Amino acid sequence: MALVRDMLGNYRITGETTDADILKAAEDILHQRLQRQGTGITRPSDAADLLKARLGAKVHEVFCVIFLDTRHRIIAVEDLFHGTIDGAEVHCRVIAKRSLELNAAALIVAHNHPSGEPEPSRADRVLTDRIKDSMALLDIRLLDHLVVGSTVVSMAERGWL
């Protein structure tokens, strides 16, 4: 599959495509759109659209981190941990190491619930607190933890950060 951009800036997909190819193309377009805005991620829905395209169709849990600069512009989006159908083991030290390598000032973390149920579990909330506390020691802000299912739940919007 190839994603081709014509002279008018419109994208089209050539060759044989799968659902995964289409979702990857959508993710790339959303990522490029956020980077072009230059304003950074200013609300949870900005990140939610990107992460829904990236994580929504996964059949196992994936823990993803959006690394941001001081103006909340995207430096990188990376899947750091992969798990099973109902969990993924996440290590704060790996997130911290990668954050320092990229010189990130802020983070948005996210993971999917393959069941489609986006309600954060108690373990999700405990993990969020651990990440927030760990990153604070390095002066890196955790802006949000999004849980992707049939919809996207923002822990920041719920006042849990």
UniProtKB/TrEMBL annotation:
Keyword hit for Zinc: yes
Keywords associated with the record: Hydrolase, Metal-binding, Metalloprotease, Protease, Zinc
Annotated GO MF terms: metal ion binding; metallopeptidase activity
Biological-process GO terms, alphabetical: proteolysis
Keyword Nucleus: no
PROSITE patterns linked to this entry: MPN (PS50249), UPF0758 (PS01302)
Source domain of life: Bacteria
Matching Pfam families: RadC (PF04002)
UniProt cross-references to InterPro entries, sorted A to Z: MPN, RadC_JAB, UPF0758, UPF0758_CS
Domain MPN: 40-161
PANTHER family: DNA REPAIR PROTEIN RADC, UPF0758 PROTEIN YEES-RELATED
Record's protein name: DNA repair protein RadC
